[in-house]
Fold each of these.
Amino acid sequence: MKQKINGRTIEISNPHKVFYPNANITKGEILNYYNRIAEYMLPHIRNRLVVMQRFPEGIGKEGFYHKQVPDYFPEWLQRKTVTLRKGEKQDIAVVNKKADIIYMAEKGVITFHIWLSQKDNIEKPDKLIFDLDPPKKGEFSEVKFAAYKLRDLFQDMGLIPYVMTTGSKGVHVVTPIKPEYDFDIIRQYVRDILTELVKKYPDRFTLEPRKDERQGRVFLDYLRHAFGQTSVAPYSLRPIEGAPIATLLEWEELPYIENSQKYHMKNIFKRLSQKKDPWKEFKLHRKSLDI
DNA sequence: GTCCACG
DNA sequence: CGTGGACAACGCGGC
DNA sequence: GCCGCG
Ligand SMILES: [Mn+2]
Ligand SMILES: [Mn+2]
């Protein structure tokens, strides 16, 4: 079977292979999903380097993260050569068009993880991302409490924070910024800010990286702010039964969200047909940080 | 999903 | 010619 | 340097 997109012909293999065993979702359905969702994804993923999380045998078998684009990927898929901390070079995939998403999905990519910077300015992130997860199963309300506190914090700084489910356990609070500072500067800056917030709520928040030291507190994960680190792309599927999706929200919806997997392959298009883009103004809301 | 050494 | 097995990430914090 | 973590 073949599909033609953006003038590229993509050969689709094994469309009937089951990728989500429990729900019986096939590779063909995943490709159909990415075909339909691409227009919503592209504004957020375009011009960014991506790490592919691949499950060529479905989520019932082991998957892997894939950064170095293999030579057998087509020449039309853009690579960006980056130098790792250890000095080695790596050719990372860049998403520019719908065909890029579909090609990667054809190669078993279920989840797209994207850089916080764009391809022409890879050293400088254009958004802040804080990853908030429940300290224990079923404590999503703690995640929401943390999200609101971060929202207030950034709004008070004159910034415009947004919120999304990750489709896994928690949420991301994402704030657009002008790409003016390197990752290391940003990370130190946000860490200092969060340290103050933790002082205010020492029994609910922590910056402790070791799980067994968190003691029921929400880890305010700021560690995505580093060169080469990624976060899940908007509208990416997750490799979890039920095919949950990282979904952009309005702050006004958050009170009614009870878990991170509320939106999934079976209900997302109903939502999209009823709701205007909750992040429509995201790029317009990039502000300078006062560092 | 693709590659390739090996039978 | 067919196929089993190899392969496909990395940066940060803290000890 | 290595482990836990995402
Ligand atoms: Mn998370
Ligand atoms: Mn295979």
Amino acid sequence: MKTVTISDIAAKAGVSMKTVSRVLNREPNVREEMREKVLAVADSLNYKPNFSARSLASKKSFVIAHWHNNSNADYTSRVLEGAHQACRSAGYFVVSEQLSAPYYETASAYLDTYSVDGLVLSAPLADDADLLQFLLERNIPFVRISPGTQPGISCAAYIDNSGAAKRMTQLLIDAGHKHISFICGPPNHMASQQRIQGFQNALKGAGINCEDCPIYSGDFSVKSGFDTYTNAIAKQKQISAIFAANDAMAVGVVMAALKHGVNIPDDLAIVGFDGSQLSHTIWPQLTTLYQPVSEMAEAITQSLLERIRTGKIDNTPLEFETYILRRDTM
Amino acid sequence: MKTVTISDIAAKAGVSMKTVSRVLNREPNVREEMREKVLAVADSLNYKPNFSARSLASKKSFVIAHWHNNSNADYTSRVLEGAHQACRSAGYFVVSEQLSAPYYETASAYLDTYSVDGLVLSAPLADDADLLQFLLERNIPFVRISPGTQPGISCAAYIDNSGAAKRMTQLLIDAGHKHISFICGPPNHMASQQRIQGFQNALKGAGINCEDCPIYSGDFSVKSGFDTYTNAIAKQKQISAIFAANDAMAVGVVMAALKHGVNIPDDLAIVGFDGSQLSHTIWPQLTTLYQPVSEMAEAITQSLLERIRTGKIDNTPLEFETYILRRDTM
DNA sequence: AGTCAAAATGACAGCGCTGTCAATATTTGA
DNA sequence: TCAAATATTGACAGCGCTGTCATTTTGACT
């Protein structure tokens, strides 16, 4: 089966190769009738473009890399799914890579070997200062999902962390809780700070004494939630609800509370933040806040492709809606 | 910064482009001193090969696709990691794709658009008869991880399911359990059948009455483990241990048992099979059987690359060792 | 030294496409 | 109506590499 090339199309349509190329690449300055004729011929010949040739001639790779340093495979796979979705129609490949520290060195080695047209960075890698500076210097297009720092240096997908945390806290308050503990993530993580902010706003709005609502910090791992409950919260019997800044820590709290024989949610309500797979894998199922990770990834990847195509930089952040998934733990 | 090409190397080394190409591609029939000189010059010029050009000229894509239909992101990410590992040194890309049903149609559409040199299929996709036939017909090199059917049609990575299940069962028996229930996976899944086999072998070897040890079937999901315990096992007080054919179902059992107020492991021992991330995320941590998924993927990918490079087909299965991770639930 | 096969090397076309720039067609405006 | 401006199209080189096949070198054996 002979490969069909644009020169075959050109011959059959009675135009030049370049015109065929223009049509296929949606370039401007082609008459409508020409476009239609070429498209029809291409279709009749069952033409499939050759990426390598395109890539060689145009010096683009048609590869988008997704880099992460997140051991949460569920989160990563949702990001990847969205990125794929965006790339499929544009004819781009996505390769997903778990980057190892030191990030910018690994990145540098990677980019020496493979050529990529753009990068999708997901949190917390999206906040690695060295890596960001490196990418900026090398002038490699990148976008970020839920970065916590340096807003404005790239296009990014966000959720309203503060607002969402406030709504979640309000839910707890409405249920009558007055002693609510919050477990936040790493202190340098802006998203976590924003969630604390929303938590405290809700408390203030309801006239609840912040001193009754201690804040602890974990590291976003299941273990840190488990340990925080065990070491710090278990003995404080007046605390009737715990809000963890992500699902993994919330699950850790659930597990630790279960171990202490606590009745969930009657004696202790627990809520998380993420809408992760894990949140409904466990029993009791976790009440959490759903983030549309896959949609965020798709949109941000689309904007990356747009930037690559047009060369125009538009760093307007994309904000996404979240909603509470109310389940067993409150 | 001008791109360094093989013709630059050729000029500086005083040889022809073709000789440089031979050296760079490890082709035979190059004198040792020539090889060394070329390599030295390439290094001094900091030469980086151009994939597109190579690909265009050689009609290879240097892309390996990993296809799966597994919603278990943890498992998939471990496979991907291994595949990456194998491809990195060979200069291949890996793209990972969740294939949607009907598989062979999606596959066909995918291969019409993208060109790939080979495929890594992970279970249960590795057992889709239509897809396999399609790949065989199109003569696309592929390898499989833990296939349950049609051994011999491709190179594959295996573990000794029966032997491993036997060892795990023996552990339970040695701890004094005489009423052990087994939850298997989908009946057409050979790995699951082999695990049942091993379970029953151990029972027989210990002279335990199989009728005291009922077998139920789930679908490898957390929910099916949860439901099986709740609907079928909970009321059988004599059952003192449950062996689930994978971690997800075992976790479901743990969760359901927790919900029933059962004391684990004193009143009920539970063991899984996989060594998944999930197994140690929950409390109590699950005793499980570790499978070296990532290593399996790496080895099998290596053999795929070998087949692509040499054209030689060697479908000798690769068998891997497993070991029991003993934790809280038994 | 001479012969011949095998090993090593090189010349060169061309993979399929796009960028550049020149050529031609069409529209605009006076 | 005609020149100038603009839109559309085409010719062709060449992206960096490998496959093919011809040529040269080497080594083994008379």
